[in-house]
Design a protein that fits this description.
This protein is mostly beta strands and 288 residues long. It has one helix and 26 strands. The strands form five sheets. The protein has a ten-stranded antiparallel β-sheet, with no helix packed on it. The longest helix has 4 residues.
C-alpha cells in the first residue's frame, strides 16, 4: 500500500492506495473522506466543494463524522465543527485525523483509518469529550454516495442465527424541512432485504439491522461496496433503536449510507466509537 500527501479539489489531503482501492481523506476540512473507489475507477462518493450550504457550514459530501443527540437527532450539534482544519498522524498502515475541539460543546471528532487488505479498509469514527462536564450522544457515520444509472442499495434484515427475530423500520415522515412518502416506490422488500432503487424522491428509512450492513451495487463498474458495523442487540440506538439508515436526496443528487453507534453518557476524556469496515467486491452481488 501507499500513503501520499497531495492536493485534491484544491484541498490538502492524504491518499491511501492499495492494489485495488483508493481513498482520499481531507485534512484542510473535516474530518472527511472525499474519494473512495477502485484505483483507476470513479469516485463512488458524492463530492461537491461548492454544494449545499447552511449559514457558515458546507455539506461538501463524502464521508463524515456526525453526532446523534438523544431526542434531537437533527440538532445543530450533529454537524457543526466538521468544516475546520484537522490534525493528523500518518502511520504505516493508515492515518488518524482529528478535528479541533468545539469551544462550546468541548467535543472533538475524528477518524482512525486502517488498511486491512487490498479490498478492505477499517474506518473507526469517534468523538471525544474534552471538557470537564458530561456529554451525551452517539457517533453517526453518514457516507454520501452518487447514485448513477443502475446503482441500487440493500440492507439485510434480521439475523438468521437467532430463533427469535423481528424487523423494525422507522420512517421519519417529516424532518429538516422534508416530507417523506409512506408508499415510496423506491423502497421494496424480499424475504431477507430492504431494497432501495433511487428515483430522485426524497426519502429516509431507518432500520434495526442485526447484521449491521448496508450495500451499494454498481453494475457499470462491476462492483459492490459494503459498509458493516457491529450491532449490539437491544443497544440504545437513535431513531427508535435503529443502527442503519438510508437517505435519498432530491433528484438523486446523493444517497447516504448511514450507520450509528449506541447513544450513551460520555464522561470527561472518554472516547466513543463507531467502527465500520468498508469492503469493495469485484462483482455485483445479488441480494435475494
Amino acid at each position: 500500500m501507499m500513503i501520499t500527501e497531495l492536493v485534491f479539489d484544491g484541498l490538502n489531503c492524504i491518499e491511501l492506495r492499495t492494489n485495488k482501492i483508493k481513498m482520499i481523506i481531507t485534512t484542510e476540512i473535516g474530518p472527511r473522506i472525499a474519494f473512495y473507489g477502485k484505483v483507476n475507477g470513479e469516485n463512488l462518493l458524492y463530492w461537491n466543494k461548492d454544494g449545499i450550504k447552511y449559514d457558515d457550514w458546507n455539506l461538501y459530501g463524502g464521508h463524515r463524522v456526525w453526532i446523534t443527540r438523544p431526542g434531537a437527532d437533527e440538532s445543530q450539534d450533529t454537524y457543526l465543527a466538521d468544516n475546520e482544519e484537522c490534525e493528523y498522524t500518518i502511520r504505516e498502515t493508515g492515518v488518524k485525523i482529528t478535528s479541533p475541539m468545539n469551544p462550546i460543546m468541548k467535543i472533538t471528532r475524528g477518524m482512525d483509518i486502517e488498511v486491512i487488505s487490498d479490498n478492505e479498509i477499517r474506518v473507526t469514527n469517534f468523538i471525544t469529550n474534552c471538557g470537564p462536564m458530561l456529554y451525551s450522544g452517539g457517533v453517526w457515520s453518514p457516507t454520501c454516495t452518487k447514485p448513477r444509472e443502475g446503482v441500487k442499495y440493500s440492507i439485510p434484515l434480521g439475523d438468521d442465527s437467532l430463533s427469535w427475530d423481528i424487523v423494525k423500520i422507522i420512517i421519519p415522515r417529516k424532518f429538516a424541512g422534508n416530507t417523506v412518502r409512506i408508499d415510496d416506490p423506491q423502497i421494496s422488500f424480499n424475504s431477507n432485504y430492504m431494497l432501495i432503487n433511487p428515483m430522485g424522491i426524497v426519502t429516509k428509512r431507518a432500520v434495526y439491522a442485526p447484521q449491521g450492513k448496508i450495500a451499494m451495487t454498481y453494475p457499470e463498474e462491476n462492483l459492490t461496496f459494503i459498509k458493516s458495523s457491529k450491532c449490539k442487540r437491544d443497544g440504545n440506538y437513535p431513531l427508535g433503536g435503529c443502527n442503519i439508515a438510508v437517505f435519498v436526496g432530491k433528484d438523486n443528487f446523493m444517497v447516504e449510507m448511514e450507520t450509528f453507534s449506541e447513544e450513551q453518557t460520555i464522561i470527561p476524556n472518554e472516547t466513543i466509537e463507531n467502527v465500520e469496515n468498508w469492503t469493495l467486491v469485484d462483482k455485483v452481488l445479488k441480494f435475494e
